[in-house]
Amino acid sequence: METTIDVGEAEMLKAVFLPFPITSHTIRVVDTARLFAMHGVDVTIITTPGNTKVFQTSIDHCDSGHIRIHLVNFPGIPGLPQGFETFTAHTPQHLVPQIFEGISLLQDPIQQLFATMKPDFIVSDMFFPWSADAAAELGIPHLIYLGGSYISRSARNSIEQYAPHTKVDSDSEPFLLPGLPHKLHMTRLQLPAQTRERNHLTELMKTVKESEKKSYGSLINSFYEFEGIYEEHYKTTTGTKSWSVGPVSLWVNQDESDKDVRGGASEEREPEGWLTWLDSKTEDSVLYVCFGSMNKFSTSQLVEIAHALEDFGHDFIWVVGKFEDQGEIGGVNGFLKEFENRVVVKSRGYLIRGWAPQLLILDHPAIGGVVTHCGWNTTLESVIAGLPMATMPLFAEQFYNEKLLVDVLGIGVSIGVKKWKKWNEVGDEIVKRENIVKAISLLMGGGEEALEMRRRARVLGEAAKKTIQPGGCSHTKVKGLIDELKALKLQKFNHKIA
């Protein structure tokens, strides 16, 4: 008697997603998990209790019944207070090693879960490089979720291959990034510390690259119409398979209710006076200023930003975050309160001290431009909204992203930051108010250059919306990848029967 198989059962994919406990990393991996669940994949997100607050509400809002969260308790680490399970802008530096230690101790229990859950494939953040070997042991595909852009990864490969930064005489002398589709220049000061000199992150990034080679392929939150030339360049030069599946926030946060809760815990929310304030403004008249969830500025830099916005002479909304005063008279909060009082009286500015519903704000017709640190999530969200940007990169791959916005696509103007800094340090560079004013005045002005930037940004915004529709590039790639994974599972299923 012939053995038969249930083809429908064989085609039902089960996946495990493993986000890394940094807000920006978690948000994009969870959004992608929701995207796969939308397409019928049975998804389990493995994380710790302290990492759920940035996405639990989004999962609760999710219409798909194909997604769930599995919690793993964070290990107790000597010297690490309970509840410190994620990295934020306010994580004390002395606790960073203990959090990393706790994350490393999660490897064994998570690997055991992999074996118990028996997923058909694993998607993990790049900072869990060991998961590629874990998937290989189970004989299933591993997809590594690479943070940032294709251009940033291409630029890193250029630097690793040609070492152009070692051939200049000073840290501030520009050098060309060889082998890229465009002539892009940087300085040593703008490179990540682990690129300039070997440290523990140098070894981590090397391990990440090795795990990518072991993986079935990589996922990047991008779309072909945005940086397709660098997607093709990256795949050709590395010889690896990669899928641009973005913009993931646009796929899964189309309703206002989804946009309202994405990335923020309820206790961090402020009263929504910003909406009434924005409603009172004319179209394209307001500058949105936000430096992401991990920014850390000195009081001196905050003062320069504040004075620049005041001198700018136009309306703005600034997500300024929360700060602890360090004993100085008046302190940063005292200064910001005085500043806020002045601009509120004139109805010229609005400050948000906690978490901001960024997707809703960017969608508002009053917003005409963005000041950004060039973090990849904010960059893509601004592109979706069709908004040009003034760029003020801080750390990670953000200086590479600035090159894409300013030099390649022409939808950004550089404020002129000269020095990369670590994410949990304030740094010693102070960008002066006159430089900020010059950039944002150009961005929001009525000159030919500003109008052309806006036109190009709007074209990309429309392309972002089309790419996730049936027949669009990202839609086709996501469907194709899922079909490919189904075929692999069916092939494996048939092989067992044979």
UniProtKB/TrEMBL annotation:
GO terms for molecular function: UDP-glucosyltransferase activity. It is an enzyme of class 2 (transferase). Its EC number is 2.4.1.-. The keyword Glycosyltransferase applies. PROSITE patterns: UDPGT. Coiled coil: none annotated. The keyword tRNA-binding does not apply. Keywords: Glycosyltransferase, Transferase. SUPFAM superfamilies: UDP-Glycosyltransferase/glycogen phosphorylase (SSF53756). Belongs to the UDP-glycosyltransferase family. PANTHER family: GLYCOSYLTRANSFERASE (PTHR48047), SCOPOLETIN GLUCOSYLTRANSFERASE-LIKE (PTHR48047:SF45). This is Glycosyltransferase.
